[in-house]
Design brief:
CATH class: Alpha Beta
Number of strands: 9
Order of helices and strands: EHEHHEHHEHEHEEHEHE
Helix content: 25-40%
Strand order of the largest sheet: 2-3-4-5-6-7-8-1-9
Shape: globular
CATH topology: TIM Barrel
């Protein structure tokens, strides 16, 4: 990713290898090993969730990069050992390991997402020490799961390090729509933050309006839908892309690729 990407918008889903999408988003006959290739015909970015639970092998990461087309980006969720077990303390060597493991993505390497546990409350010194360890690239976002973190001093520290507050609607701690960096990361968990259900037209209009404004102001924006239950995520992601391409009052944004179409009857 380079400065040429300023103002670009990437839209996708949180993960792609869902067996319950077979016969819906993935037409009958699409084998599991071909799901990423099919996904990449519809969207220009995806969020890797599996890396949160288990660090992928270098060969697996290299294979993802090979399967995806030019211009595609992989956002990726950093290891839960850093955020849940170590709770951001003494993680310098771990950060080198996880960033190194994702390096084979090369020019398809997108933002790193650090998701904190809901039990971890506001601790500004802990956050500051962690932020000092982060590399300058790729872009970084932090998803807080306790509302105590939504405070002006936190936003200020994130801004100092060009780290994005993850704009999340997870039921544990829905966040404000606050942009703290040169990039913005939006993560939708479905209405009520429960991973299921379609967003309303009004909700998606709001997403498009906010994202369009950030794009026109020169911020990169990454938007992912995590409401995978029932295959809602790819449908909502497609509807958002259509709005951002100029199909709604949200206004035109600088999409990384033209909006793609999904048959809502799938």
């Amino acid at each position: 990713m380079t400065t040429a990407e300023h103002g670009r918008v990437w839209v996708g889903t949180s993960g792609w290898s869902y067996s319950h999408w077979a016969g819906g988003f993935y037409p009958a006959g699409v084998k599991a090993k071909l799901r990423l290739a099919h996904y990449a015909t519809r969207f220009d970015a995806v969020e890797i969730n599996a890396s949160f639970y288990r660090l992928p092998s270098e060969s697996a990461v290299a294979a993802w990069a090979e399967e995806a087309p030019p211009g595609f980006l992989f956002a990726w969720k950093a290891s839960r050992y850093i955020t849940q077990a170590k709770k951001l303390r003494d993680v310098g060597d771990l950060l080198k390991l996880v960033y190194g493991r994702m390096a084979p993505l090369a020019d398809k390497l997108g933002p790193a997402l650090f998701q904190l546990p809901p039990q971890l409350r506001l601790d500004l010194p802990r956050l500051e020490q962690f932020l000092d360890l982060l590399p300058g690239s790729p872009p970084t976002t932090i998803e807080f799961r306790h509302p105590s973190w939504y405070a002006a001093p936190v936003f200020s520290r994130l801004a100092d390090h060009d780290v994005a507050l993850c704009i999340s609607d997870h039921h544990d701690a829905p966040s404000p729509w606050e942009a703290t960096a040169s990039h913005v990361y939006v993560r939708g968990h479905g209405p009520g933050g429960q991973y299921a259900g379609r967003y309303s037209a009004a909700d998606l209009d709001r997403w498009a309006s906010e994202i369009g404004a950030w794009s026109r102001a020169g911020r990169q924006v990454f938007a992912f839908f995590d409401n995978d239950i029932g295959g809602a995520a790819p449908l909502d992601a497609t509807d958002l892309k259509l709005r951002l391409a100029g199909g709604s009052r949200g206004g035109r944004a600088r999409l990384a690729t033209p909006a793609s179409m999904i048959d809502h009857g799938e």
